[in-house]
Amino acid sequence: MSDTGLQCVLVIDGSPDIHYIVGAQLKSERVSLLHAHGAEEGAALAAEHLPDLILLDLDMPDTDGMTLCAQLKADRTLADIPVIFLTGNMDVATKVKAFDMGAVDYVTKPFDAIELKARVRAALRTKRYHDLLTSKAQIDALTGLWNRGYLSDRLSSEVSVMAREASPVSVIMVDIDHFKSINDTHGHSFGDMVIQQVGESFVRSCRESDVVCRYGDDEFALILRNTSGASALALAERLCTDVAALEFSRGRQPVPVTASFGVATSDQFDDLAEVTAETLLGAADKALYSAKSQGRNRARGGQD
Ligand SMILES: Nc1nc2c(ncn2[C@@H]2O[C@H](COP(=O)(O)OP(=O)(O)OP(=O)(O)O)[C@@H](O)[C@H]2O)c(=O)[nH]1
């Protein structure tokens, strides 16, 4: 999706005429267009903009379209972008190879404007459903927060950013204190409401760039990009105070709720090569364990 909210189509073709014709034919469609005139530029634009559809020339002078398509499909972040080949006459073997390579469709030059638009619309419609399903599969049904599956993927990519840009990444693990007893005393639906409101309090207190996830049961995990251990610990202490200030009651009886927090940061590792999603989560979990064993309702960092 482009910044304008329109779906984005990347045209990769060696011929300036084709860019002109595709641009003119798709003018009436609600899409934003990006143009690349060779494979290298196309791969770079695809990685930068993550378009919703790629129209790819089969016969480019530098790298041929099949090779570029295989390259895009081998990259996890680009593999789900549908590719339509733009081609002169294709024999059956080439068509089969194109589909095997991951193309969703092909259009034969010279294009018929109505046919090109219909094929682009169909591919974009499928991509929209695909994106919707992907995001739904990554959202926790009770809280509307990101789920554990999303957390692992996102943390792995934040660790790569950390290594590339030398900016710290921190993780906070949270567990609601004595949650079993809250459930047992006041019922499962009261427990559900506590989980929801604790999650909402995190979203209210965090930055847009922070990623708040339900890790499972009564546990949450937060990813804080470009955040030092000291800042992450300060945030965890604030979140801890926020949870304790939430007001829950059964009838007129107040029900106190607190949570414990464990913080880990990439900076605490002597060797950056040791920093992975798993080691960060493991370190945060260890810090959470010390917060629990030191009396709960507190935050502890990896070096405490
Ligand atoms: N209401 C509700 N309860 C859940 C849900 N998922 C798990 N639980 C319950 O959450 C409780 C988790 O308790 P624990 O974290 O193991 O222990 P605790 O009582 O919080 O104790 P400490 O973590 O040591 O403070 C269990 O009783 C689970 O049955 C859920 O979606 N909703």
Automatic annotation (TrEMBL):
One of its GO terms (biological process) is phosphorelay signal transduction system. Pfam families: GGDEF (PF00990), Response_reg (PF00072). SUPFAM superfamilies: CheY-like, Nucleotide cyclase. Its cofactor is Mg(2+). One of its GO terms (cellular component) is plasma membrane. Residues 8-124 form the Response regulatory domain. The modification 4-aspartylphosphate is found at residue 57. Its EC number is 2.7.7.65. GO terms for molecular function: diguanylate cyclase activity. Residues 167-304 form the GGDEF domain. Keywords: Phosphoprotein. It catalyses: 2 GTP = 3',3'-c-di-GMP + 2 diphosphate. It comes from the Bacteria. It is an enzyme of class 2 (transferase). NCBIfam families: GGDEF. PANTHER family: DIGUANYLATE CYCLASE DGCM-RELATED, REGULATORY COMPONENTS OF SENSORY TRANSDUCTION SYSTEM. This is diguanylate cyclase. It comes from Halospina denitrificans.
